[in-house]
Amino acid sequence: MGTLYLVRHGQASFGAANYDQLSALGVQQCQRLGAYFAGKRRRFAAVYTGTLQRQIQSYDAIADGLGQRQPALQLPGLNEYDSHAVIAAVHPQPLPSAATAADTPEAYRQHFRILREGLAAWMAGRTQPQGMPSYAEFVAGIHDALARVRAQADGDVLMVSSGGPISTVVAQVLGAPAEASIALNLRIRNSAVSEFAVNPKQLALVTFNTLPHLDADAHASWVTHT
Fold this sequence. Notes:
The protein has helices at 24-39, 53-66, 83-90, 98-103, 105-123, 135-150, 163-173, 180-185; strands at residues 2-8, 46-49, 73-74, 157-161, 193-198, 203-210.
């Protein structure tokens, strides 16, 4: 039996023109995770990331902290959904900019309220956000990535992804309805680790959304969600 360490990327650049970049804190979060893995003498039989920059940069920072770098296979099936497209499919009227949403509590709440509505509509097949796969296709890409992990069930695997795919995996492993993944997703913290026991047939959830590498007073301010 092996173990899958499924990691959400570090803090990205919420409110910036290009969200798909790690912030300076996001790099630190992932470097600290790599150092934690090094302290536990973790060695990975395989590493997977999505193709988004924040996911690739997160693995680079983890590898820096780990002191060990190996080629990572980049799989589009581990990419996050497009939140802007999801929102636009249910709310075509302009919303406050991301920068405003980040600074104004009411705008921030509105952003995530509409995002939840948009995700529920996409999952139920009531909308098809522009430029995005169907929800069934999104799930199929995640299943493809997990099939690769099960094929290496005798070793530890590191997978760096985003909240959407991670919450989808957790909901499915627990046998929860698709919409349960929405609430899970909005609770996953940056650089958090979810751990699964793996055999060739299935995954079993061991831990969810943990931050063992930030479990110290000195790192309390490093805990972020967006």
